[in-house]
Amino acid sequence: MEDGYQNRTAFIKGAKDIAKEVKRQASKKVGRSVDRMSDEYSKRSYSRFEEDDDDDYPMQGSQDGGYYRGDSQAANDDEGGHSDSTEGHDEDDEIYEGEYQGIPRADSGKGSLAGGPGSVGAGAQQFKDIGVSEAERRKDQEELAQQYETILQECGHGKFQWTLYFVLGLALMADGVEIFVVGFVLPSAEKDMCLSEPNKSMLGLIVYFGMMVGAFLWGALADRIGRRQSLLISLSINSVFSFFSSFVQGYSTFLFCRLLSGVGIGGSIPIVFSYYSEFLAQEKRGEHLSWLCMFWMIGGIYASAMAWAIIPHYGWSFQMGSAYQFHSWRVFVLVCAFPSVAAIAALSAMPESPRFYLENGKHDEGWMILKQVHDTNMRAKGYPERVFSVTTIKTVKQMDELVDTGTDTPVWQRYRLKIMSLSQQMRKNILACFSPEYKRTTFMLMAVWFTMSFSYYGLTVWFPDMIKYIQKQEYESKTKTFTKERVEHVTFNFTLENQVHRQGHYFNDKFLNLKMKSMVFEDSVFEECYFEDITSTHTFFRNCTFIASLFYNTDLFKYRFVNCKLVNSTFLHNKEGCMLDFSDDFNNAYMIYFVNFLGTLAVLPGNIVSALLMDKIGRLRMLAGSSVISCVSCFFLMFGNSESGMIALLCLFGGISIASWNALDVITVELYPSDKRTTAFGFLNALCKLAAVLGISIFQSFVGITKALPILFAAGALAAGSFLATKLPETRGQVLQ
């Protein structure tokens, strides 16, 4: 038996070598026609071998498609469950598109040539073959879906899935952290980089733009090169640019690094849910995908806790002169890259999705991974003697789409052609989501994703801004005003805070080593005054006159003097950059972190409820029901007139709406086939980020003006989303397409 098998392997290798040599020589001499003849020769060689193999080594079972070992054969297998499906595979051999791959199977010899290159009806036959191939591919996908579900049932749910759960959870946690990073560092970064209001707004939105591009790009790429590989690349980009952003000093470079960091992490959500779903059996899928959503919450809690512990501690910083400053908020940015780095390290030990391999015709690789899942779970459950009984798995017929790059082609041109081919395949996959079969589903999901994201992100950013506005109003109500005061020969060496001085006259006064916070001087005169070691925050001089005054080592820059006259006045050794003083916003910083911590923690009950009920009441009921309750809860926002009231309403809204997000993630995964799953999910998640940008921009514009319009916008969007959600098909109890 072994000698026969070695002869069989040698024959395959020889046929492959002959076919490749004929093709190489023919391409130089006579062109494409001989290329087609060499392809025919190669295929006939394999067909000849397959016929011999079917006679000498029958292993496929009965005509009804037996995919499993017979009882007698299974009893004689060793403990490792070694399958004939993996024999004869030489890992050192190069595999080329269109060549023989893997072991022979009963359905592998059906694709012989219909006619030679000189056939009269070659063109018509070619189009006919394309139609037949597409029909065969569709049939193969349906058969694979059914068999794959049966195999997952045999593999069981155990140690392997739980290990993958925590690994992919780290990637999802990194996405949750990324959302909060800029919001937490903005109060400190705006002073460190002297940011204007437009620059602050752009810095707050840039991560969403990056995640929008990343979701679209990595989602489409994961259907072509694999879930694991795409996720590793995207997380690596996120880690690298998160690390760089903690050290760069300029606003533009920091903005660029955060943009690329967002592009990297944008692939996390569409890939993670698709990847994990392909290891879950039907009855476990909804529940465990909902449990996976908890890591997004954990990411928010991690970011809040790290900000609370690091940013207010100004001692965690150093500076090299006044040009390079590394304050504690930069330490926080660095620490926030840890979940992404940990996810990369853990993901390196996990296999690719076997469903992706089988969809792309890689039978042996998919079989080995499923066997690994089975053996890992059985050993953990105390049944190491159980053997993986599957011998052959249905694979999907492949359509040749790769560009042939000969050995004479320059390297740069080969890569260019490969990138162009990959781009065309990704574009084709995206357009397939709008084909007649999926067009209605795609447009309905687009509407649901957009309305939910618009209302959720708009309100969650509007809440903290409203809290800040309430705090600002309370602070301004305590402002002290001084009018027409005359101060002479006085030394100020204490903190000046929250005061307005109008039409004052200051003669020969000294302002030494003090802090000015929220100080405003209007229509005042400073004559022969001396300012030294001044640190200021929200301090301005309007329509003032300075006569023979000296400024030494202060941060009173030109933009703080509005319509002022400087007569014989001098500035010496001005401080560079915007100096940070954490004590100014110490209490406010803690309040921001505490509010976000509570808001993130509030989604825990919603996560638990959705996980326990997802497979019991169905995805649509969960999605529509949670959206309706969220819509109703919006009207309670009208009663949030205090700081504590707004925090309580924030927690209520977050806890209810999270169930909608979990159901939407699950139903999006299950409505698309495996070869389009991450592409469709990535496109919808990119639309989600676009809606988030619009929601944040619109809702922020109403802060301090009115509460009615943001509430009506959010409630209307949620009502529309819940109505459209009821029109989607229910996916509970269905096999993964």
UniProtKB/TrEMBL annotation:
SUPFAM superfamilies in the record: MFS general substrate transporter (SSF103473), Pentapeptide repeat-like (SSF141571)
Q: What does this protein do?
A: Plays a role in the control of regulated secretion in neural and endocrine cells, enhancing selectively low-frequency neurotransmission. Positively regulates vesicle fusion by maintaining the readily releasable pool of secretory vesicles.
Compartment(s) of residence: Cytoplasmic vesicle, Secretory vesicle, Synaptic vesicle membrane; Presynapse
Stored InterPro entries: LD_SV2, MFS, MFS_dom, MFS_sugar_transport-like, MFS_trans_sf, Sugar_transporter_CS, SV2
**Similarity field:** Belongs to the major facilitator superfamily.
Residue spans of biased composition, Gly residues class: 112-121
Q: Which GO terms describe its cellular component?
A: neuron projection; synaptic vesicle membrane
- Annotated Major facilitator superfamily (MFS) profile domain residues: 164-732
Protein name (record): Synaptic vesicle glycoprotein 2A
According to the record, the segments passing through the membrane are 162-189, 201-219, 231-252, 258-277, 289-311, 331-350, 443-463, 590-613, 620-640, 646-668, 680-702, 708-726
Q: Where on the tree of life does the source sit, at the highest rank?
A: Eukaryota
- Does 4Fe-4S show up as a keyword for this record? no
- GO molecular function per UniProt: transmembrane transporter activity
GO-annotated biological processes: chemical synaptic transmission; neurotransmitter transport
Q: Where is this region: Disordered?
A: 21-122
What is the recorded membrane topology of this protein? Multi-pass membrane protein
- How does the record describe its quaternary structure? Interacts with SYT1/synaptotagmin-1 in a calcium-dependent manner. Binds the adapter protein complex AP-2.
What are the record keywords, sorted? Cell projection, Cytoplasmic vesicle, Glycoprotein, Membrane, Neurotransmitter transport, Phosphoprotein, Synapse, Transmembrane, Transmembrane helix, Transport
* Compositional bias annotation for Basic and acidic residues: 32-49, 79-88
